[in-house]
Amino acid sequence: MARPYSPGPKEFVFGGGDGGDQRVVVPDAQEAYVAFSTFFRVQDGGTWTIDDEPAGQRLVLMPGQAVLARSTAGSLEYLKVDRPNRYLPGAMLFFENGYAGLDHFGPWLPNLADLDATPEARGATRAATITTEAAALEEAGRIWADSGIVDPSDQWYVFFDSHGAEDDRAERAALLVLIEFLGLERVDAPAEAADGEVWVRRDARLDTEFERWS
Predict the structure, then answer these.
(1) Residues forming CATH 3.10.28 domain(s) in the chain
(2) pLDDT, tens digit, 9 for 90 and up, residues 52-101
(3) Are 158 and 148 in contact (CB under 8 A)?
(4) Which of 30, 40, 70, 193 could be disulfide-bonded to 189 (CB atoms 3.0-4.6 Å)?
(5) What is the pLDDT averaged over residues 129-145?
(6) Percentage of the chain with pLDDT > 90?
(7) At CA 46, angle to CA 42 and CA 51, rounded to 5?
(8) In the 3-class helix/strand/coil scheme, how is the chain assigned residue by residue?
(9) For the chain, how big is the Rg over CA atoms in Å?
(10) Which residues, in sequence order, are CB contacts of 96 under 8 Å at separation 6+?
(11) pLDDT value, residue 102
């Protein structure tokens, strides 16, 4: 059972490309998701919006451009969407925790033009905006939680386990910047490893952070 909004219920405004808005009042995030899923599937528009007007937050879904955008209090960020099935999960995160709920959904960038760069450039640009150790560890934890393991010897963290070099290109580029920023030791992967894997020696800071993501 979904956790009720507190205070609740909450009101959201859904917008579609045809200009038809729909206001819904819902007791929890699951009800909001169900309502928006229906709206998303029946509207014939290239852009969909979800507004939480009291909080001043918005999520914009642009499948035609493979882009998500989020805004709050003068901040506007963009995310390149690599799979069509990520739009509705992104909406669910917004319904659960608003703008901040999407922090770990991917590498958000401040300029729409940056999304036209190569995946490697997008990832490196995103990582370069991280300026504190705590934020860098958190981002490394998010990346590891998606596809990471501890190798059988218990000495190494393996990022992008069993992934090829053409997978996760933006995330890998971001990780390499974070490894350098944090002063971590990267080692060559074993010959039998997939060519997209990144191996890093275990570090007490990573141990603590990754426990949060396990």
Answers:
(1) 119-213
(2) 999 999 999 999 899 999 999 889 999 988 888 899 999 999 999 999 99
(3) yes
(4) 193
(5) 92
(6) 70
(7) 80
(8) CCCECCCCCEEEEEECCCCCCEEEEECEHHHHHHHHHHHHHHCCCCCEEEEECCCCEEEEEEHHHCEEEEEECCEEEEEECCCHHHHHHHHHHHHHHHHHHHCCCCCCECCHHHHHCCHHHHHHHHHHCCCCHHHHHHHHHHHHHHHCEECCCCCEEEECCCCCCCCCHHHHHHHHHHHHHHCCCEECCCCCCCCCCEEEECCHHHHHHHHHHC
(9) 19
(10) 29
(11) 94
Domain 119-213 has CATH 3.10.20: no
User: Cβ(32)–Cβ(26) under 8 Å?
Assistant: yes
Q: 125-158: b or e for each residue (b if 16 or more CB lie within 10 Å)? A: bbbeebeeeeebbbbbbbbbebbbebbeeeebbb
Structure tokens at 92: 């669910």
Q: Please report how many Cα atoms fall inside a 13 Å half-sphere around the Cα of residue 99, on the Cβ side.
A: 19
Distance set, CA 8 to CA 11, 51, 70 (Å)? 9, 16, 23
